[in-house]
User: What shape does this take?
Amino acid sequence: MEKYEQNNEFGRRVFEQFMDLFVNPEVNRRQGAGELEKPLDLRAAQILFFSDGRKPKVRINSEVRAIGKVQFKPGISKKAGEPVFEHELEGLEAINLTEGDDPDCGHATLVKIGGRWTITFDFRYNKKLSRKHINTAKQFYEAAGFSFKQKNWSAFVDSLFSAAELLARSILLSRPDPQFRKKATHKAIQIRYNRFADLGNVEEAHRETLNKLSGLRDRARYLKGDVSISEDEARRFLDIVNNMMEYASSFLGIH
Assistant: This one.
């Protein structure tokens, strides 16, 4: 999640872009249809971006739904469930969508507090689907750990590759691509993950491990040759894939 305030140059440009591209056209459309008053006292706006290619949805003022982490003014404190008023706030630290919203969509939320706009956005898509990938990867990882203890190297490689590939795809799903979300081959995932790594988005060891396990899996799963792996190398792969799991959860904000 990113947060910017309108009172700095970059924040002002971000604010203006969201207003010009999404909020103002929607306000004008609704005002033309008699659905919003003129002039409009705009206090909040929210744009939802869907992972399946649907047109973004714009919410205005009271339509905005979010869970916010707020910063109170000195001397103000609240108990859980107590109402919070604008004059009590110093600012916003974070804004997340509610549980009633599509968990796989991204959002940009603009809120005006004390005459100052705060803009928060999170363009990590498919969080729910990514969480399923990570949870399933954990199961394959545990299976690989069992095979490691038994020194069943073919089963170890096959299980650990499945875990690594699921973790790679969980990260790649954060980008909006309906076709990749619907279906992705082993080759497509590997190519995209390597390109993603080229940009410095993941550790080099993560990329190397996925590629190495992919090559070993053909031998292990389809009996195309001997599985040549030492116990030390297998243990290192386990450690790296575990690190991939931690990184994927952190990258996607999944806890």
